[in-house]
Amino acid sequence: MNAVISRYLALMDSQRESAFAVLEEITDAQLWQRPVPKEWSIGEILDHNYLLCASMDPVVQWVWKLNG
């Protein structure tokens, strides 16, 4: 695997683990509480990011195969 890609994957792993460590410290109520009306909660932001990544995965898989 390309060294640059390996570095980025390692960075993403590190960032994911850091985020999970912070999330362990908050309650479910805190996770889903909106800071102010009409602004998203932490849980909503994470869910949105998950859905975005999941919807883009087929495209990324297809482009990756074209590159190979």
Task: Present the secondary structure layout.
Blueprint: H1 3-23, H2 28-32, H3 42-67
Account of the 3D structure:
The chain has 68 residues and is mainly alpha-helical. The protein has one domain. The protein has 3 helices and no strands. The longest helix is centred in the last third of the chain and has 26 residues. The termini are close together.
Number of strands: 0
Q: Radius of gyration in whole Å, from Cα?
A: 16 Å
Low-confidence stretches: none
Mean pLDDT: 91
In whole angstroms, how far apart are the ends? 11 Å
Q: Number of helix segments?
A: 3
Provide the structure class.
mainly alpha
The helix/strand series, from N terminus to C terminus, equals: HHH
Shape: flat
Approximate strand percentage: under 5%
Provide the helix percentage: over 70%
Count of distinct structural domains: 1
**Major sheet: size, sense and barrel closure?**
none
What keywords describe this structure?
mainly alpha, 76% helix, 68 residues, flat
Concise synopsis of the structure shown:
With 68 residues, the chain is an all-alpha fold. It has helices spanning 3-23, 28-32, 42-67.
